[in-house]
Amino acid sequence: MTLTLTKALEYDHLGETQTFDGGITLETRAEVGLLTHNVVVRGSNLKDWNDKIEACPDGFDPGEFATHTCFQGRFGEEIGSDQFGSQIMFHQQELNAGEVVGHIEHIEITYAGQAFRLGRYPIHFHINGDMNGSYVRGCGIHHTFNRAVNIHHTDNILVENNVVYDVMGGAIFLEDSIEVGNIFQYNLAIFVRSSSSLLNDDITPAGFWITHPDNIVRHNHVAGGTHFGFWYRMLEHPQGPSFTEDIWPQNVPLGEFYNNTVHSVGWYGLWVFEFYTPKVDGGKSKYGVPIPAVFKNLTTWNSFRGAEWVEAYPMQFHGFVLANNFMAGTEHYFNRGTAPQYSQDGAMVKDTVIIGHLNSANHPPCTKRGIVLPLDGGVLFDGITFVNFDGEKNENHTCSAIGTVKIVCICELLCAGYNYKFKNIKWLNSNKKAYWEWEHQAELEDLDGTLTGHGAGARAMSKSNLFPPECFDDDEWSPNFGGMICPGNESVDVIRMSFNYAKPESLMFKDLSVQNQYGTSKTKFRSKGNTFPSGWMLLLVSKLPHNISFINMDHITNISYNGAFYGLEDGAHVIVQHPVMQDIYDQFVVEKELDPSRNYSKTEPLTYENSLNGDTYFTNETKVLTYMISDKPNNPDVRLDRPITLRAIKCFYRGCKRPDVEEGPPVATERPKDAKMWSDPATWENGMPANDTDVTIKEGDWVVADTVLPKMKNLNIYGTLEIDDQKDPATGHVREFVLEATYIYIRGGRLLAGWEDSPFTGKLDILLNGNHHTPEFQKKNKDDDGPNIGSKVIGGLDLFGEPYNITWTHLATTADNGSNTIILETAVDWNIGDEIVMTTTSFNPWETETFKIASVSGDMKTLTLNASLQYKHLSFEESVGGMSYEIKAEVGLLSRNIRIIGADYNDMFSESFGARVIVGMQTELDEKGELKPHIGYARLSNIEFLHSGQLGFVASYDARYSVTFFDIGKVSTTRPSYVTKCTFHNGFSPAFGVIGTHNLELFNNVIHHTVGSAIIVVGNNNTLRDNLVTLSVFPGSYQDRFEENTLDWMASIEIQNATNTSLVGNVVAGSERAAYRLNGESCTEDEATWANNTAHSTVMGLTMWQPDCLKRELCSRFSGFYVYKSFSYGFYSNSICSVIIENSKFVDNGMSIFPYIKEPRAQEHAFKRKFLEVYDSLFVGASASYNCKTDVMKKDDHKNIALSKTAISWAFNGPVGRVALGWPMFASGDNLAPLLPLNNPHEPPALYGHITFQGVTFAHFKDTCGMTDRIFSTNPTGPDVEHPIYMSRIQLVDVDEKSKLFAHHPQLNCVDMSCDGKKKLIIKDFDGSFFGTPSSYIPESEYQYNGDRRHGFGDYRIP
Predict the structure, then answer these.
(1) Under a CB-based contact definition with an 8 Å cutoff, are residues 1327 and 1289 in contact?
(2) DSSP state of 778
(3) Cβ distance 1307 to 1279 under 8 Å?
(4) DSSP assignment, residue 554?
(5) Residue 78 · residue 109 · CB < 8 Å
(6) Number of C-alpha atoms within 13 angstroms, CB side, residue 567?
(7) Does 208 have pLDDT greater than 90?
(8) Membrane-spanning regions, if any (predicted)?
(9) Residues 595, 600, 603: CA angle, nearest 5 degrees
(10) Is 316 helix (H, G, I), strand (E, B) or coil?
(11) Are 642 and 629 in contact (CB under 8 A)?
């Protein structure tokens, strides 16, 4: 039949049969349907609304995350209407009453349905129950405003032979997920388009919206819709008025889906989303025997995706033809559940043709991936024919037959890794067979040789060095990352390993080195993953041992992680080996649940024959932690997954429980008269100690070192070793001592140099030898308890160096680069030759400099240095509004006369393995077999630590910091401990760790260059006072590292896990991450105790994360802080706690304050008072000392800044300069920071939140360095609600009017209109101190009303 039309066609419409290799044909023909009939049901068309709507310039974007730029005209030019059309409703008062029958046939329905009105549809079957015999057939339904045929809790309707065109929202729609027995056949749905006038489901509409599987859908066509052809979305239980917990639609077997066609839709031809798990019992419960849902004979062409299942299992697609779909032919997310794997009863794609591109001229871009494999194994691909995957490109991607899925927020990089089985595969004009992106992406198993052409059992994989040489590169399998084939006769089997939560924390974010007999592979850390996220995933060759180590961390010995091995069958096994450098393990287990009847620890190397799953092997000779993963015991008939929990640790105490120990007698305060001299041969039973021997100071002995000491291996002190401070009679000078050893172990004894009231005046270097390969210290008996000693260590001790009155001060005047003279604020008692450190006063912590003193002026304030300054160091102060602040470089003394030094060796800096002091509690068996306790203590005064600490040993159970107080309980008069006026510089770890220790004081210490934090405190009633910390280096960028997946936001001072800590007068000057990580003080106490703490020259100043805050109050207070030149945030919190900030100063920060305060959830209608309150504080936008040229850091210049990208505030990005307050977010839940940007909203806003500013001074907010600094700024990515700000008693000094607030324009990402949160701001000035008169600020709520159409905001939104 030939039709002559009344007007010419605007577009080309295909009408041809396309023929492909192998005789495959595809009908690519536009459907033509009849809309008009002699009986017409037409809604009124009020001509007053018939204005012309111009086409949106940007058109319609069907993308999943698209922002529509117009409310109207997205689908081209059209004539507007009031969208208030006719409706036909069938309803009866009781279900199944049989009172209503509907017969609608061969009529035209147009201008029907009523927008914005639920239940007002062109044809509506409304809560009738069984309507067997009713039908809608042969009708033309077009130009509707609210769906087409809506079936609501009604069964057994026949809908056939209808033509549906230009429908707003879902066309044929099952509403409550309870509708069954309906038949949809031979219908045509054209141009089913997105609508914002009803439910979310209508924003992304489907031609057929099926919410209950027990319906028949066959022989239908969907063409030209904005989103879906067929969307199966089964609910757990029916919804709305049909709700009942007795019906489980997600578990009902599929009725029928057969011979349907979709083309030219914006999203998917068929989408089975989100959950569908059919069971034999018909959905009467959540549990039952799985039964496949078989979707048959779908044809989809020229759509975004052909077909996709998400959380649906077992699913089967049979007889599909999928051609030229933009992203994928068929895509699969997950295949879970208990259905048999790789079988006719499990997940399967069968007898399907996937065509990369059509043969017609000017065809759309080719299909990027023919099959997109799921993030699970178990799927069988049987009878797949790939056509025309011949090298064409789509957006710079070579279109390829096979790829693996990526899921936003679950896994987007380094994904998959599963086994997928193929048989009966055909390749027609297809030489681009897989698109590999990384080494461990997938294992494609060829069951019959048709996938690879290399025999049954062959594997196609991405290229890896771990496989035997018989595996060869194949260009057809490597259009991107290299691909390879392992022939079937090699019988290569692959086991997937995935694990995370590696401990100690220093293992996190590191890459892995994996080695077997064939080669070495490097596996990157991944922050996301469908299994064990924030961890690693790799493919191992079955039946081989694999050596796995953490790059740059191979010296770590205590190793723990959680994980699983996937896909073991038919004798599959793998031996995992972790090489270590030490030989002390009290616990080495793999299985989560141990069988008490088994002995897991083997005494001979593991083999498949002599071992079971979870067996372990370790010897001191090999120093390799080895464990077996296998299918034994209980060899499975199907592939088996093996979960593991690896724990290879040394417990401190027997039973891993600290024993109760009584305190010993108080320490002696003077040398006893019967003390022995080291130089006296009578002191030694076996002669004078020689070099490279072990030396023991016996219990009860007091030995005075009065001569040159030998170089020792082990120095064991049960008694007392005192370093003599008397003048040498031969020279008349105080002796200089070098105490050199590999281990100094004080077993209840004492190492003494000087006295508390009479400090040591000579020189003493305690030199500790050792490297990564030095054996850990061997305790006297294997049953001795206590913390891990490691190497290069000394225990409790008394060291009193020569005192200094001033350990650090400030510059009195600015020191310019090129100068070699500095003037100090305070007279010092420092000496020529002493080493000093001068802190940065810019944003760059690496502008910290060290020098030696060449001369000192008579007033002891002017120092001449041994070299010229490389950088300018400021000394600036200002008073504003009755408050003052200063920006002055700190200058600290590093030299002391007693030094503890990590002895130099060739690899010292690459290994970063220095000296350390651990003060702990030990128990050991004495000669009578009785338990004898030793509680360590240490009084360290004016001691210098050089090259101390050991990189990577950060776990609390093996914290190898410069000084660690571990588990000694309360400091007391009988066991006194403190660290005062000491220096730590050029170290490799934190300087202090205070763990399980209470009442300890750290006072007036200078710490320069730590890797990681400087001070970590976990304990009660500890004091940190007047300490100076400079240059805390981020481990992720230390030396040549660039750990781009790191989520570690270490702080120089971390006390978030401590209680009742006194924090007064400390300074952090230069940190590559944060200055302080804190838990805050109580909000209910009358007065705060924290005071006068400073942070400057950091990426962030103060931080408080979710685990940190005071949960008992849900509020944390921060008082007495001064933060300047924090590149990103001066204060950032991300927790459930409200925040009070008082008596604090914030100067020259990127953004001074930005809290993210979360919970309760608005979705649960929960309400709780949450707040940010700021009192009596000062905020300075840009001080007079701010330098537009030098106070700049760019990520291209500083790799740590590049690694900090998620934390960089929106300040400096766009029209906003420095900001006092980034509008706080009160959110319903977590925002996934720092994985995502710290200001990312992620969750909906909370119902309540308020911000208060009282007694606050704002100064110097104006145009600076080409940008405008602001007191308040909204968050450009913030939520669609901004909570109110209340202000009173405000002082403004040198503040431009425009700098008071920057409100971003509304975001264009709320579906089809701008988000209006930015238009609903409110700032209340109660006393006029901010705006000049008591008033409220309300933004321009009418912004873009009837203006820019992209905002979707105007009269045309009125229904």
Answers:
(1) yes
(2) P
(3) no
(4) T
(5) no
(6) 26
(7) yes
(8) none
(9) 160
(10) strand
(11) yes
At residue 786, the pLDDT reads 46
CA distance 223 to 157: 23
* pLDDT 10s digits, 288-309: 899 999 999 999 999 999 999 9
Show the tokens assigned to 1245. 């806003």
pLDDT digit string, tens, across residues 902-949: 999 999 999 999 999 999 877 666 666 666 667 889 999 999 999 999
DSSP-derived 3-state class of residue 1206: helix
CA distances for 605 relative to 171, 244, 1013, angstroms: 67, 59, 41
Q: For residue 553, count other CB atoms closer than 10 A to its CB.
A: 19
pLDDT at 1027 over 50: yes
656 close to 676: Cβ distance less than 8 angstroms: no
Tell me the per-residue pLDDT of 716-771, one tens digit each, with 9 for 90 and over: 998 999 999 988 777 777 889 999 999 998 888 899 999 999 999 999 999 999 88
- Mark residue 178 as left, alpha or beta (left: phi above 0; alpha: psi -120 to 50; beta: remaining): alpha
Rounded CA-CA distance 10/963 in Å is 80
- Which residues make Cβ contacts (< 8 Å) with residue 1014, sequence separation at least 6? 984, 990, 991, 992, 1007, 1029, 1032, 1052, 1053, 1068
| Measured distance CA(277)–CA(1329) in Å, rounded | 63
Cα 260 → chain centroid = 42
Sheet architecture: strand order including 123-130: 88-91, 123-130, 149-155, 172-174, 206-210, 228-232, 268-276, 305-312, 328-334, 369-373, 400-404
pLDDT of 1347 reads 83
- Residues 58, 61, 64, CA angle at the centre, nearest 5°? 150
How far is residue 703's CA from residue 682's CA, in Å, rounded to a whole number?
A: 11
Tokens for 818? 């090129």
Give dist(CA 273, CA 294) in Å, integer: 15
Rounded-to-integer distance, Cα 1025 and Cα 483, Å: 60
DSSP secondary structure code for residue 466 in this structure: T
Which of the two residues, 104 and 504, has the higher pLDDT score?
104
Residue 661 sits at the vertex; the CA angle it makes with 655 and 666, to the nearest 5 degrees, is: 150
The pTM assigned to this predicted structure is 0.86
Q: Where are the alpha helices (DSSP H) in 966-1125?
A: none
Using 50, 70 and 90 to split pLDDT, how confident is the model at 790? very low
Element (H, E) at 400: strand 400-404
Q: What is the mean pLDDT of the chain?
A: 91
Cα–Cα distance between 333 and 405 in angstroms, integer?
7
Nearest 5 degrees, angle CA 560-CA 562-CA 568? 125
Query: 798: helix, coil or strand?
Result: strand
Tokens of 1191: 């106070």
pLDDT category at 219 given cuts 50, 70, 90 is very high
Within 8 A by CB and 6+ apart from 906, the residues are none
Q: Letter for the amino acid at 278?
A: P
Q: How many CA atoms does the CB half-sphere of 869 hold within 13 Å?
A: 23
CA gap 120, 146 in Å, rounded: 7
CB 852 within 8 A of CB 835: yes
**Which stretch of 165-179, 212-226, 811-825, 1101-1115 has the lowest confidence by average pLDDT?**
1101-1115
DSSP bridge partners of 702 = 720
Label residue 586 by pLDDT band (50, 70, 90). Answer: low
Please write the tens of the pLDDT for every residue from 1103-1142: 999 889 998 899 999 999 999 999 999 999 999 999 999 9
More confident residue, 1252 or 580: 1252
Q: Which residues have CB under 8 Å from 487's CB, separation 6+? A: 454, 455, 458, 470, 471
Alpha carbon distance 924, 931 (integer Å): 6
Distance CA 339, CA 377 (A): 12
The phi, psi pair for 720, rounded to 5°, reads: -130, 135
Query: Within a 13 Å sphere around the CA of 383, how many CA atoms are in the beta-carbon half?
Result: 12
d(Cα 988, Cα 914) in Å, to the nearest integer? 7
